[in-house]
Write a structure and sequence with these properties.
By secondary structure, the chain is an alpha/beta fold. It has 2 domains: 1-155, Rossmann fold, CATH 3.40.50; 156-263, Rossmann fold, CATH 3.40.50.620. It contains 11 helices and 10 strands. It has a 10-stranded mixed beta sheet, with helices on both faces. Helix 5 (126-134) links the parallel strand 4 and strand 5. Helix 4 (93-103) runs parallel beside helix 5 and helix 10 runs parallel beside helix 11 (279-287). The longest helix has 18 residues, at 52-69.
Length: 307
């Protein structure tokens, strides 16, 4: 069973982080979880010896301003309905955020990502990328924010897509996807992509010996067996098997079906091995025009996943 008791949203008061607050607010409301907003004032210690007095004053001003503004990010009508907490710190942004995840026993992180004009589809922001590579809990990335100002409220979660590689850890991602769909009253599609480029590498001799119908039936059975684990969930689950390049097909299906959230596993045997994210997951996170919930999967599974 998946537990979402504390949701963390790091904010820098930009439009992407405001959109992240909307999704953090939505998750907290759906799962009756505490919502924690956190802002980290970047430390200026490398320059303290040059102009110590001025920099310390600037840090104090930034801290005071953030502390005064952060709680007002959530409209009062929503704040009154949930347990809202705020944290403001000074230090290294990535280290402080990881410390908050650890010390507050955070169950999920929601982060807005910053693009860089025309190259925005290829950048997810250094802080977000650092969190994706190191944080031990699921991270919901909210990207591709339009230039106009974002009004904080509740986000629609009507259609959820879980893309699985049918590995042994697939059930972990399915638990999160199912729990999210149940909490939001959403439809869930579970899909597997047969990589066409992998088949090309097998060569004609190997392909000739394969029974494509048998292979398709085996994959279908494996996908059906996976979904049967959640048959008592009360969630409407559709299964789908397609062929193509995985990240392209995931994005194509998500666009064509107006998916609200994509769920993926970040595969690795340890947190260290996630120094390089899986190519499919990384491309989907970078290119998707809807939020992506990335589940870090280690040999022990993510925190919060249980029987």
């Amino acid at each position: 069973m998946i537990s979402l008791n504390k949701v963390l949203v790091p904010v820098d008061f930009s439009e992407p982080s405001k959109k992240a607050v909307t999704y953090g607010l939505t998750l907290a409301g759906r799962f009756n979880a505490s919502l924690i907003l956190a802002h980290v004032v970047p430390e200026s210690s490398p320059l303290l010896y040059a102009i110590p007095t001025q920099l310390l004053e600037i840090e104090k001003e930034q801290y005071a301003k953030a502390a005064a503004e952060i709680r007002h990010l959530v409209p009062s009508e929503y704040a009154a309905r949930l347990n809202l907490q705020t944290i403001v710190k000074t230090g290294n942004i990535e280290q402080e955020l990881l410390g908050i995840v650890r010390d507050e026993r955070i169950d999920a992180v929601v982060m807005g990502t910053h693009g860089r004009r025309r190259l925005s589809r290829w950048f997810i922001g250094s802080v977000t990328e650092h969190m994706l590579r190191h944080v031990p809990v699921p991270v919901l990335t909210v990207s591709n924010v339009e230039s106009e100002k974002h009004a904080i409220g509740l986000a629609a979660l009507n259609r959820i897509l879980y893309a699985t590689d049918l590995s042994e850890s697939s059930s972990i991602g399915l638990q999160y996807a199912t729990e999210l769909a149940r909490g939001a009253g959403a439809q869930l599609t579970v899909m597997h992509v047969v990589d066409d480029e992998d088949r090309m590498l097998w060569g004609p001799a190997v392909i000739a010996r394969l029974d494509r119908a048998k292979l398709a039936a085996e994959l279908r059975q494996k996908l059906d067996d996976l979904v049967k684990q959640e048959t008592a969930s009360g969630v409407e689950i559709e299964t789908l098997i397609v062929e193509g390049k995985p990240f392209r097909k995931i994005l194509e299906i998500a666009e064509n079906r107006s998916i609200d959230v994509i769920v993926l596993n970040l595969q690795s045997k340890s947190i260290v091995e996630r120094a390089l994210l899986g190519s499919t997951a990384e491309r989907v996170v970078r290119l998707a025009r809807m939020p992506v919930l990335s589940i870090p999967v280690t040999e022990r599974g993510p925190r919060g996943a249980g029987a």
